[in-house]
Design goal:
This protein is mainly alpha-helical. It has 2 domains: 50 residues, no CATH class; 66 residues, no CATH class. The protein is 60% helix and 10% strand. The chain has 7 helices and 2 strands; from the N terminus they run H-E-H-E-H-H-H-H-H. It has a two-stranded parallel sheet. Helix 2 links the parallel strand 1 and strand 2. Helix 4 packs across helix 5. The longest helix has 15 residues. The termini are close together.
């Protein structure tokens, strides 16, 4: 977290907006934005917008565990294995998201593309493996 906050500060300085700026944090970006505001209390931050983010990872984990209990066995096992077995984790996560995330059928191309960037044959699994 310290590295990401430092990089956010670097961006703010790079763009010369220290005296007045707004931050929109979506998903993990909302966590970063909230941590940045709480830890640094930057005087130039005029607005902080947090969208589709979690308030506490413990509550998020608990909610996901409850949702997983009602999922088929292959989804439970694939998600439980995590990035130790990305060939099972990716499809399990897609099935989980189809029920509890993006329920649009067919799945929008943008979401499919994003998932392939992590779980596809040329994907970068370090994103999903991050703590």
């Amino acid at each position: 977290m310290d590295l990401f906050i430092a990089e956010l500060e670097n961006l703010i300085v790079h763009f010369g907006i220290q005296d007045g700026y707004s931050i929109l944090g979506h998903s993990w970006g909302g966590i970063l934005a909230s941590e940045f505001e709480v830890r640094k209390q930057p005087p130039g931050l005029k607005r902080l917008i947090v969208a589709d983010s979690l308030a506490a990872s413990s509550l998020w984990n608990k909610s996901n565990a409850q949702l997983l209990q009602a999922s088929p066995e292959d989804v439970q096992q694939g998600v439980a294995g995590g990035m130790k077995d990305p060939e099972k984790f990716g499809p399990a996560l897609q099935k989980f998201h189809a029920r509890h995330g993006c329920i649009i059928v067919p799945v929008p191309e943008e979401l499919s593309y994003t998932m392939l960037q992590v779980f596809g044959p040329d994907g970068d699994p370090t994103v999903a493996a991050a703590p």
